[in-house]
Design goal:
five-stranded mixed sheet, 12 strands, three-stranded antiparallel sheet
Length: 401
């Protein structure tokens, strides 16, 4: 099998192909998408920090000047997304990150821990009482949505809207999304943006103890977030925080079921939870690929890559690189030397990483304590998506006897 992100067999298990790429073609051109694949950890890590690569090129050139086609169908989508910080570059990115970091602080995240623990405990208790079910739909998905909704100040009656918006928006990040997926993502982004504008206007008039109120008021030397920037930031927090946490939970439990010795080791020693969460993110990475534009001619791994093309950084491959990780194909919930790049690196390192870690530790911990005999009920199926990679469902049974 070769690199084929549209092949279900490859999506289910890309790691043998990654090994071949690292060994034989660590930097290779992928004709179907016109991208250069980068497979080794040192190269991916360096590329994430290299300012000659960017999430966008629009800070240095127009679409036409950069030799790319305009985005008429996608334009309403990117207008929302590029108002956040993920798909922009300095100096805009620097300003946005500075302002958002004043409101979304490590202290705020740590203060959320008791609420995250309560939400995770309530979800898990209900799940155990029902004897199990779909772990993704009943625990993994509601947890981050509820947390981000409470954090943003989204009323409980509206929270059912968030999960579909998030999933549909993230469809745009797959390789060569279909016309239908593009239209769906545009509609979802527009609907979510309109909803947030109205909510932000209410919070400006009547601030509460929530992140939207804080973002609306945050200032630095007279500088404030515009309404578009506030909306784009909230969309990013939902999408990045929600999709990754759901998929780490699903992929992680599936990984543990396939490695029963490590599952028993973790059940017997919950102090391993922090290292286990990091290892589960490494071993079956939820974000398999992160794309960057080449802003000026560059050499990666001895290969010259010209300005104007994209590189596709293979996080899933980098996280299994034997040059960096000892025995990389072995799941080790106690692994301490673990420089995985699942949260990225450089200026685009995930701002929500501390919150994701809190959610994952509390979620896994609640399930390990309340359902020590949880077992897989049926073998799961992977979604067709490759870039943001996760399971359709994860059916488990819980015995309390």
């Amino acid at each position: 099998m070769r690199f084929d992100p549209w092949n279900p067999d490859f999506v289910a298990h890309p790691y043998d192909v990654y090994r071949e790429l690292r060994d034989n073609e660590p930097v290779s051109f992928f004709e179907p998408t016109g991208q250069w694949l980068v497979a080794r950890h040192p190269d991916v890590n360096a590329a994430l920090r290299d300012r000659r690569l960017g999430r966008s090129y629009l800070h240095i050139a127009s679409h036409q000047e950069f030799g790319r086609e305009p985005e008429p169908v996608q334009e309403p989508f990117w207008r929302v997304i590029r108002a956040g910080m993920l798909d922009v570059e300095p100096p805009i990115h620097t300003r946005l990150r500075r302002l958002v970091s004043k409101a979304f602080t490590p202290r705020m995240v740590e203060e959320l821990r008791p609420r995250v623990r309560r939400i995770a405990g309530e979800l898990v208790d209900g799940f155990v009482e029902r004897g199990g079910g779909d772990l993704l739909a009943e625990v993994a998905e509601p947890l981050p949505v509820t947390v981000i909704a409470e954090m943003l100040g989204v009323p409980e009656a509206d929270r059912h809207l968030l999960r579909p918006w998030s999933a549909e928006i993230c469809g745009m990040y797959e390789l060569s999304p279909s016309a239908e997926a593009q239209h769906t993502a545009v509609r979802a982004a527009s609907e979510f943006a309109a909803y947030l504008r109205e909510l932000a206007a209410r919070r400006r008039r009547d601030p509460g103890n929530d992140l939207i109120s804080a973002l609306a008021q945050v200032a630095d030397e007279g500088d404030r977030l515009t309404e578009d920037e506030l909306v784009g930031t909230c969309v990013l927090l939902l999408n990045a925080g929600h999709e990754a946490t759901v998929n780490v939970t699903g992929n992680g439990w599936w990984s543990l079921f396939r490695n029963p010795g490590e599952l028993e080791r973790l059940r017997g020693d919950l102090s391993l939870l922090p290292t286990a969460v990091e290892e589960l993110m490494r071993w079956d990475t939820p974000l398999q690929m992160f794309e960057r534009w080449v802003l000026e001619d560059i050499t990666i791994g001895g290969v010259d890559i010209p300005k104007g093309v994209e590189v596709a950084l293979l996080f899933g491959s980098a996280n299994r690189d034997p040059e960096v990780f000892q025995d990389p194909d072995r799941l080790d919930v106690g692994r301490t030397d673990n420089p995985h790049i699942s949260f990225g690196a450089g200026i685009h390192f995930c701002l929500g990483a501390p919150l994701a870690r809190v959610e994952l530790i509390e979620s896994f911990g609640a399930l390990l304590k309340a359902a020590p005999k949880m077992e897989l009920a049926e073998e799961p199926v992977w979604k067709p998506n490759y870039v943001i990679r996760g399971l359709e469902s994860l059916k488990v049974s819980v015995s309390t006897g």
